[in-house]
């Protein structure tokens, strides 16, 4: 996980191809003031291992061959201690400029300021971003390459990516203006990025063509925020996260919400041309098509088998009833059998999904050397990977698969957050889940990390999480964000391995998880119809309506969920990885008939997420296979506490549709 950012001054942008109105003035009240120190601090929380900063200066010179201006460039490293006091204390004023920042720049110059903070998880040698090669190409990279490009077990994927991008052919001004990258063939920047399997956000300066490339993976699994230039604020900014604003409105707990927006998934470029009459460089922004046909199909999210014939649905329902009967007949204390009735009653489709999920977890946990240089506690560090754990269906599947993929010498932390102590539904299911995991994997040392919180006392934490949410702005976002932020922090209590949870005298120990990789179940509900609205759509419009709702969920998950979740988890110096959003898993689930993925004619806990319930049974998780869906804000009971705090009661909050309400009124910070 990394924190990356870019600030561009001295360029006039043409955004016409994106249909963005850059002439509409942003009201003064929506200007965001933050210092370079604010930005560095926000990025450093995401990338605690290293922080680097470089400036690229562009100058116009007279061509020796043609009667026109051409662009010359130079780069310089910016040491944190060398930042001017003005730059630290007053970064953003009218039009996004300060006298100190531009007093030394020629009138016909542009500045691109790159920032990169790293949480290094790959390679055997330390790196500092931005990465720069001998040709002055500059890369800021926040991601993981799990496939599509070969990465050696001891290689850093960012360094490999920089090398591949450096070998790309330059894009001529004509090709950029016509957006005709097909003529470039293989080896173009869009082609390289389209090959990557895994999450990524990128900022890349291609020196030979004077083009800046930036973007996010097709599902938006890594955050990247953008501030498009306006008349009121001419800067172009990209950042993994919004810094805490220097004019943060502490008295009412709100932030200025219109400065940033989530960058839509895709690959973008800015072609920089030499200055015209106004003395400003011109930057033409384009969005490019993916060049990977398989990836395009996943983005479209079209399923070939949506509506079953009566006989197909009858066969599927009969198998589900048989599975449910078998699960009740199996002794819950028995170990899972490879050839028992549970195995026989599960479908071949479930086994296919299971294998894809196992490969996904394997890619995200143990295929590559985890970077350890400079860590003094390596010998005593026995928990490289943790699971965001509610004890529900999705997190139980991930935990069981992680056990199969991770070296047996490692412990596994199960991070569980509660705002109602032992009484929260997620705490109860987490304890039951721990017992089930111990039954199927008695040799593994499992640590259930119980993270307890009292919402009324989280004054600073709530304000801090609100800055991380930006631009998300609802009470539901805040509730989920706080729960994720606390869970990812891993600061809680663990109980002695052999203690009985029913024993009031059990011994507890203060514990903080040091795992830097956190597996999260995001994407399971969207792909397998786990939300209540899926059942509503099905009842009102049958199978086709259900498919369209699921498709909508997958195509907007980048905006509604993943950017927010990434920012809240990464703020703890942890990297969120999403096994259910692996490209191969998505492809396999799309290839399965919808009625085999879910059957909403059947009750909750049986038909919803049907395919994953079968996967759980294959893993021996018969109890987890029958658990209903419960969102983190309800399972942890933060939603209830938030409703009481901000609306007086759950009933009043429900009447006001508090979950989707925009945070606008004064929050109780006392």
Helix content: 25-40%
Strand line-up across the major sheet: 4-3-5-1-11-10-12
Determine the mean pLDDT.
84
Q: Radius of gyration in whole Å, from Cα?
A: 26 Å
- Reading off the top of the CATH hierarchy, the class of the largest domain is best stated as Alpha Beta
Q: Any guess at the CATH architecture of the largest domain?
A: 4-Layer Sandwich
Number of strands: 21
Strand content: 15-25%
Please give the domain count.
2
Largest sheet, in brief, is:
7 strands, antiparallel
- Total of DSSP H or I helical runs spanning 4+ residues: 22
**Morphology call:** globular
Assign the CATH topology of the largest domain: Glutamine Phosphoribosylpyrophosphate, subunit 1, domain 1
Helix/strand-derived category reads alpha+beta
Rounded to the nearest angstrom, the distance between the terminal CA atoms is 34 Å
The CATH superfamily name of the largest domain is Aminohydrolase, N-terminal nucleophile (Ntn) domain
The low-confidence runs, each spanning 5 or more residues with pLDDT under 50, are 22-29, 84-105, 246-255, 330-345, 665-670
Features:
single chain; alpha+beta; Glutamine Phosphoribosylpyrophosphate, subunit 1, domain 1; Rossmann fold; 2 domains; 7-stranded mixed sheet; 22 helices; globular; disordered C terminus; asparagine biosynthesis
Structure, explained:
- The chain is α+β, with helices and mostly antiparallel strands and 670 residues long.
- It folds into two domains: 2-297, Glutamine Phosphoribosylpyrophosphate, subunit 1, domain 1 (4-Layer Sandwich), CATH 3.60.20.10; 382-593 and 630-660, HUPs (Rossmann fold), CATH 3.40.50.
- 35% of the residues lie in helices and 19% in strands.
- It has 22 helices and 21 strands.
- Strands 4-3-5-1-11-10-12 form a seven-stranded antiparallel beta sheet.
- β10 (225-227) and β11 form a beta hairpin.
- α10 packs antiparallel against α17 (583-590) and α14 crosses α16 (532-570).
- It starts with a strand and ends in a 15-residue tail after the last helix.
- Residues 22-29, 84-105, 246-255, 330-345 and 665-670 have low confidence and may be disordered.
- GO terms for molecular function: asparagine synthase (glutamine-hydrolyzing) activity.
- This is Glutamine amidotransferase type-2 domain-containing protein.
């Amino acid at each position: 996980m990394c924190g990356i950012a870019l600030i561009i001054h001295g360029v006039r942008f043409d955004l016409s191809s994106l249909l963005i109105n850059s002439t509409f003035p942003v009201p003064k009240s929506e200007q965001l003031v933050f210092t370079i120190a604010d930005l560095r601090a926000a990025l450093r929380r995401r990338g605690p291992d290293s922080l680097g900063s470089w400036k690229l200066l562009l100058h116009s010179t007279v061509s020796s061959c043609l009667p026109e201006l051409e662009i010359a460039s130079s780069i310089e490293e910016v040491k944190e201690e060398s930042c001017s006091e003005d730059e630290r204390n007053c970064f953003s004023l009218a039009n996004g400029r300060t006298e100190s920042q531009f007093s030394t720049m020629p009138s016909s110059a542009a500045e691109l300021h790159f920032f990169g903070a790293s949480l290094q998880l790959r390679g055997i040698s330390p790196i500092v971003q931005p990465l720069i090669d001998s040709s002055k190409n500059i890369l800021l990279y926040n991601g993981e390459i799990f496939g599509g490009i070969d990465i050696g077990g001891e290689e850093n994927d960012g360094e490999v990516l920089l090398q591949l991008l450096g070998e790309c052919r330059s894009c001529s001004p004509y090709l950029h203006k016509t957006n005709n990258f097909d003529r470039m063939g293989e080896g173009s920047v869009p082609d390289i990025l389209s090959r990557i399997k895994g999450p990524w956000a990128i900022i890349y300066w291609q020196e030979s063509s004077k083009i800046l490339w930036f973007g996010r993976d097709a599902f938006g699994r890594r955050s990247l925020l953008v501030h498009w230039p306006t008349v009121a604020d001419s800067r172009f900014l990209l950042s993994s996260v919004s810094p805490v604003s220097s004019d943060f409105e502490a008295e009412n707990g709100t932030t200025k919400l219109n400065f940033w927006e989530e960058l839509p998934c895709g690959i973008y470029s800015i072609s920089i041309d030499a200055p015209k009459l106004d003395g400003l460089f011109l930057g033409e922004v384009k969005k490019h098509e993916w060049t990977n046909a398989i990836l395009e199909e996943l983005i479209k999210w079209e399923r070939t088998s949506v509506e079953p014939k009566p006989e197909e649905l009858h066969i599927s329902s009969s198998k589900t009833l048989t599975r449910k009967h078998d699960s009740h007949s199996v002794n819950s204390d028995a170990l899972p059998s490879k050839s028992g009735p549970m195995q026989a009653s599960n479908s071949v489709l479930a086994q296919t999904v299971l294998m894809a999920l196992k490969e996904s977890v394997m890619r995200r946990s143990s295929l590559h050397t985890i970077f350890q240089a400079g860590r003094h506690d390596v010998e005593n560090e026995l928990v490289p990977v943790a699971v965001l754990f509610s004890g529900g269906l999705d997190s139980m599947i991930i935990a069981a698969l992680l056990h199969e993929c991770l070296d047996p010498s490692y412990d596994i932390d199960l991070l569980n957050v509660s705002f109602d102590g032992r009484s929260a539904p997620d705490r109860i299911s987490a304890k039951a889940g721990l017992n089930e995991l111990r039954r199927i994997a008695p040799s593994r040392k499992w640590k259930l990390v119980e993270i307890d919180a009292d919402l009324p006392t989280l004054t600073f934490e709530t304000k801090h999480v609100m800055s991380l949410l930006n631009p998300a702005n609802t009470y539901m976002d805040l509730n989920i964000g706080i729960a994720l932020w606390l869970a990812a922090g891993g600061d809680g209590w663990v109980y002695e391995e052999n203690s009985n949870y029913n024993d009031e005298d059990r011994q507890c120990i203060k514990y903080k998880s040091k795992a830097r990789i956190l597996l999260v179940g995001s994407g399971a509900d969207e792909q397998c119809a786990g939300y209540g609205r899926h059942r509503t759509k099905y009842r009102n419009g049958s199978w086709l309506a259900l498919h369209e709702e699921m498709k909508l969920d997958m195509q907007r998950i980048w905006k509604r969920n993943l950017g927010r979740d990434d920012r809240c988890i990464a703020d703890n110096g942890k990297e969120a990885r999403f096994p259910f959003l692996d490209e191969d898993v998505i492809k396999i689930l799309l290839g399965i008939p919808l009625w085999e993925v879910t059957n909403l004619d059947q009750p909750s806990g049986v038909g919803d997420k049907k395919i994953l319930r079968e996967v759980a049974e294959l893993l021996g998780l018969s109890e987890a296979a029958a658990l209903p869906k419960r969102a983190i804000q309800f399972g942890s009971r933060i939603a209830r506490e938030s409703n009481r705090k901000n609306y007086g009661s759950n009933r009043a909050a429900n009447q006001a549709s508090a979950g989707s309400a925009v945070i606008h009124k004064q929050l109780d910070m006392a």
